[in-house]
């Protein structure tokens, strides 16, 4: 759940000040992945090396390593203060330079400089590593290395990696006299267990970087600076980078950190080692059972993302921007997929017959993605006639719940890197199920390892609390249900109505966003409340769960989404004149039941806020004693897309009014890559 970033300039002069800013900006783009500590490593001045390198195990000087607790700006301030104190020359220029950086979400050890990355092999910083993921056998490795005289100074699992690299390097040097950087890293990988993305830097191998991964996302970006671009697709990244021309190379946990530099990228595969040396990129395939890795050819892809997507623009926060982007993101999700009154999903086309023959569909997700799947369940069942079961990924794994060869497992994850969801994917694959991925991230692990899938194309989402990805996930799964059920004549009229509703959905979302001021006013009335209940049922049970989750995540206010049908079985005891309760009562098959719920709550002096379809205010609250939020009425199965938006706005304004960080809420991070 961390962000790692690296920048290497080759045959192009870059001042240290520029290099630092590239690294800092890379971390800023990745800060949503973790923000309790951070660090960077850059090269020192060679001219100042004479005295400091005496007795050093390598020619040259140790790199400059900076670590700091807190957010990225804390690191920036401390680096420039330390640079002034040490009289480091920020104007020093390097024609070749390799720098690495890291922003952390703590898993092993409290946020503190000693636990921040880059983690070091020890005195002289012979090997430095930035790491995203978890090393599951670190305790065994730590004991072994301790017996060989290594002293550990952090509480992290990561520290074993650079120390293991030094141990491998020293042993190889004693036996063979020479060892390459990639050989060292390959032997380190042989010993590691768990999920990780790693970037190595070492003064033994100046101006080189090595990255490798197993289970965590890692991207290589390539920016040619020669000014000559044939416009032809590159078939081999090595052929492109061995030309000796000036270039910039990047490693990143996410595409959003490289889009301002280049649109040419390579999604590194599991067990690949990417070695940058002399401006050339070599890709090796690591196999634990083989002594030597195989060299592989990889093609660069072209990133379809604009720099504007990773900037706030005129908005105060990314969450606010992403809420208001939903008319556009939904349009993008549907673009090219609503064809001639039908649905065209290229990623599913070859597998539709298999899905139709499934004994059941199993939706698997976590958090917001689970809620989106829950919102989709009713109409998937209705349009396909296939039973649908819901699974929280971690619970499925804990129970080892039954998955059969005749099942279709639909795994939903915004990032495509959610650890529990990926482990559930492994479990489903082992059991022979057809696995379908629904993700926002092209090239993610989920998109690569499932048999087929749907990209939701919602655009880069930076706010930790998911908003536009949630609504795009629902729409993507609605289209999936329409495509699967397209062979059934009995549901043709229903499908036509839903497709018509999809076409007008962005316009209706724009309409509901006009409630922004009204939701801010509602938030101000709830600012001192300690709890919030949200009741929904049918299509909008998921809306209740997701709305409560948003308030919980960012406003740090206790909130619970509940199935309205369960109100009488316990939750009714909580109702009094002080507890705010939101009841979702828009027009659908459950409308009359929700009217009954409202009356029961009012009879117990409940403090009600009712969400209803436009024109239904008098029908849901005849006495006028409750606050009403009126939203546009759309096809009932698409109503959750409309209904969640006022709750997203409420959560946003509550957070701002309560003085909390909207985009980086306490203790959370965007991509949950740990169990």
Automatic annotation (TrEMBL):
GO biological process: amino sugar biosynthetic process; fructose 6-phosphate metabolic process; protein N-linked glycosylation; UDP-N-acetylglucosamine metabolic process
InterPro entries linked: GATase_2_dom (IPR017932), GFAT (IPR005855), GFAT_N (IPR047084), GlmS/AgaS_SIS (IPR035466), GlmS/FrlB_SIS (IPR035490), Ntn_hydrolases_N (IPR029055), SIS_dom (IPR001347), SIS_dom_sf (IPR046348)
Domain SIS per the UniProt entry, residue ranges: 351-491, 522-665
Domain of life per record: Eukaryota
Metabolic or biological pathway: Nucleotide-sugar biosynthesis; UDP-N-acetyl-alpha-D-glucosamine biosynthesis; alpha-D-glucosamine 6-phosphate from D-fructose 6-phosphate: step 1/1
Domain Glutamine amidotransferase type-2: 2-279
CDD domains associated with the record: GFAT, SIS_GlmS_GlmD_1, SIS_GlmS_GlmD_2
Entries under SUPFAM superfamilies matching the protein: N-terminal nucleophile aminohydrolases (Ntn hydrolases) (SSF56235), SIS domain (SSF53697)
EC numbers on record: 2.6.1.16
PANTHER family given in the database record: GLUCOSAMINE--FRUCTOSE-6-PHOSPHATE AMINOTRANSFERASE, ISOMERIZING, GLUTAMINE--FRUCTOSE-6-PHOSPHATE TRANSAMINASE (ISOMERIZING)
Protein's name according to its UniProt entry: glutamine--fructose-6-phosphate transaminase (isomerizing)
Species in which this protein is naturally found: Eleusine coracana subsp. coracana
Taxonomy of the source species: Eukaryota, Viridiplantae, Streptophyta, Embryophyta, Tracheophyta
């Amino acid at each position: 759940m961390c962000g790692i970033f690296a920048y290497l300039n080759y045959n192009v002069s870059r001042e240290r000040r520029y290099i630092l800013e590239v690294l800092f900006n890379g971390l800023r783009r990745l800060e949503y992945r973790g923000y309790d500590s951070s660090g960077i490593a850059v090269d020192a001045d060679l001219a100042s090396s004479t005295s400091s390198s005496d007795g050093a195990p390598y020619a040259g000087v140790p790199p400059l390593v900076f670590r700091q607790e807190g957010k990225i700006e804390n690191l920036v301030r401390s680096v420039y203060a330390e640079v002034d104190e040490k009289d480091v020359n920020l104007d020093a220029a390097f024609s070749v330079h390799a720098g690495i950086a890291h922003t952390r979400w703590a898993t092993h050890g409290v946020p503190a400089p000693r636990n921040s990355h880059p983690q070091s092999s020890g005195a002289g910083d012979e090997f430095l590593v930035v790491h995203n993921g978890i090393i599951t056998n670190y305790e065994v490795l730590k004991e072994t290395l301790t017996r060989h005289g290594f002293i550990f100074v952090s509480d992290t699992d990561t520290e074993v990696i650079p120390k293991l690299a030094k141990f491998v390097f020293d042993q190889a040097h004693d036996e063979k006299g020479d060892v390459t950087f990639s050989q060292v890293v390959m032997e380190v990988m042989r010993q590691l267990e768990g999920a990780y993305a790693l970037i190595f830097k070492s003064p033994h191998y100046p101006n080189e970087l090595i990255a490798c991964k197993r289970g965590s996302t890692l991207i290589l970006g390539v920016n040619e600076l020669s000014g000559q671009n044939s416009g032809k697709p590159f078939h081999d990244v090595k052929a492109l980078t061995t030309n000796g021309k000036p270039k910039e190379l990047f490693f990143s946990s996410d595409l959003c950190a490289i889009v301002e530099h280049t649109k040419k990228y390579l999604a590194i595969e599991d067990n690949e080692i990417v070695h940058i040396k002399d401006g050339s990129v070599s890709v090796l395939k690591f196999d634990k059972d083989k002594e030597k890795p195989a060299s592989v050819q990889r093609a660069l892809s072209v990133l379809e993302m604009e720099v504007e997507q990773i900037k706030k623009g005129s908005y105060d926060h990314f969450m606010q921007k992403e809420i208001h982007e939903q008319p556009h993101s939904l349009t993008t999700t549907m673009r090219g997929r609503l064809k001639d009154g039908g649905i065209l999903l290229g990623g599913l086309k070859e597998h539709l017959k298999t899905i139709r023959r499934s004994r059941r569909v199993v939706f698997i997700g976590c958090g917001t993605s689970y809620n989106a799947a829950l919102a989709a369940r009713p109409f998937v069942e209705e349009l396909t006639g296939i039973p649908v079961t819901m699974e929280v990924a971690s619970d499925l794994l804990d129970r080892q719940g039954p998955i059969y060869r005749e099942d279709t497992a639909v795994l939903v994850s915004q990032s495509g890197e959610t650890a529990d969801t990926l482990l559930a994917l492994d479990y489903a694959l082992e059991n022979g199920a057809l696995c379908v991925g629904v993700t926002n991230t092209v090239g993610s692990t989920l998109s690569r390892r499932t048999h087929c899938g749907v990209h939701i194309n919602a655009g880069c989402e930076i706010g930790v609390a998911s908003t536009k990805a949630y609504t795009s996930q629902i729409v993507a799964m609605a289209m999936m249900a329409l495509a699967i059920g397209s062979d059934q004549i009995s549901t043709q009229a229903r499908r036509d109505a839903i497709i018509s509703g999809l076409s007008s959905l962005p316009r209706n979302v724009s309409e509901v966003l006009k409630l922004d001021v009204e939701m801010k006013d509602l938030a101000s009335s709830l600012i001192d409340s300690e709890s919030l209940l949200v009741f929904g049922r049918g299509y909008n049970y998921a809306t209740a769960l997701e709305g409560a989750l948003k308030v919980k995540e960012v406003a740090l206010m206790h909130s619970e989404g509940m199935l309205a049908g369960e109100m009488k079985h316990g939750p009714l005891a909580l109702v009094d004149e002080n507890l705010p309760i939101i009841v979702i009562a828009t027009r659908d098959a459950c409308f009359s039941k929700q009217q009954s719920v409202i009356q029961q709550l009012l009879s117990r002096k409940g403090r009600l806020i009712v969400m209803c379809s436009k024109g239904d205010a008098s029908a849901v609250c005849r006495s006028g004693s409750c606050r009403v939020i009126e939203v546009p009425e759309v096809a009932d199965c698409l109503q959750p897309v409309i209904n969640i938006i006022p709750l997203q706005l409420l959560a946003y304004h509550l957070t701002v009014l309560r003085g909390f960080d909207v985009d980086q809420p306490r203790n959370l991070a965007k991509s949950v890559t740990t169990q």
